[in-house]
Amino acid sequence: MSKTGFIFDLDGVIVDTAKYHYLAWKNLAEELGFEFTNEQNELFKGVSRKRCLEILLDIGNVKATKEQFDRWMVEKNEDYLTYIEQMDESEILPDVVRVLTFLKERNIPIALGSASKNARPILEKVKLLSYFDVIVDGNNVTKAKPDPEVFLIAAESLGVPPENCVVFEDAVAGIEAANNAEMLSIGIGSAKILSKANFNFDNFTAIDSDFLQQLVNN
Ligand code: BG6
Ligand code: MG
């Protein structure tokens, strides 16, 4: 029997960086003269930086030249990085370390599967880098979630067949990507929003050891 591989999204699953992405996009929207709401931010979860800016400009009905578009991408990221700069272990979401430790103690392969190009520095900041056998992030993929590419590369790098992988995700696009990869999808957050997930939990605190052991056993 092949081992189960576990793949974690980063933003909104391991750390609550979704709020910093939101603040940085909101600041840019304000500079461009329109409002960007928390509800609209839901569309940005799991979505690449470039696609986020396209959606933001659509919301504000702003037309951009190529030069402006590129400059705003850089501006948003620089602003985002000022929030990230302050991060430490206190920003790890509840019970993430318990779940990672449970898997690590059993020698279960663990990967990160994130759309972010800032994934590595964030994991370093919160001191979680050593838990991950494999890191696949926005620098390694050509197709954004809901395309399964990020998770398929993670599975291959772990040496685990996709159908033996479990994915934890907080984004609609991420759950779709996991489903498209034929992996078991676990929604972390609103079950209403993540209704396509195979299982739903509000957070990791709601996931007990029995359930984790069942996942490990396939
Ligand atoms: C995802 C976030 O994890 O990464 C998105 O959910 C974000 O909101 C995307 O746009 C890209 O992140 P970054 O750090 O490369 O801008
Ligand atoms: Mg996410």
In short:
By secondary structure, the chain is α/β, with parallel strands linked by helices. The protein has helices at residues 18-31, 38-41, 49-60, 66-84, 96-105, 119-125, 149-158, 172-180, 209-216, and strands at 5-8, 110-113, 134-136, 165-169, 184-188, 199-201.
Which labels suit this protein?
six-stranded parallel beta sheet; alpha/beta; binds 6-O-phosphono-beta-D-glucopyranose; binds magnesium ion; 218 residues
How would you describe the overall organization of this protein?
- The chain is of the alpha/beta class and 218 residues long.
- Helix 1 (18-31) crosses helix 4.
- A 6-stranded parallel β-sheet has the order 3-2-1-4-5-6.
- The model has no long low-confidence stretch (mean pLDDT 96).
- The protein has helices spanning 18-31, 38-41, 49-60, 66-84, 96-105, 119-125, 149-158, 172-180, 209-216, and strands at residues 5-8, 110-113, 134-136, 165-169, 184-188, 199-201.
- Helix content is 43%, strand content 11%.
- The site of magnesium ion has 9 residues, from loops.
User: What is the count of DSSP helices, taking H or I runs of 4+ residues?
Assistant: 9
> What structural class do you assign from the helix and strand content?
alpha/beta
What's the total count of β strands? 6
Average pLDDT level: 96
- Major sheet: arrangement of strands: 3-2-1-4-5-6
Unreliable residue runs: none
What small ligands are held by the chains? 6-O-phosphono-beta-D-glucopyranose, magnesium ion
Q: Evaluate the radius of gyration.
A: 17 Å
Strand content: 5-15%
Residues in helices, as a percent range: 40-55%
Biggest β-sheet description: 6 strands, parallel
State the end-to-end distance.
9 Å
Q: Would you list the SSEs in sequence order as H and E?
A: EHHHHHEHEHEHEEH
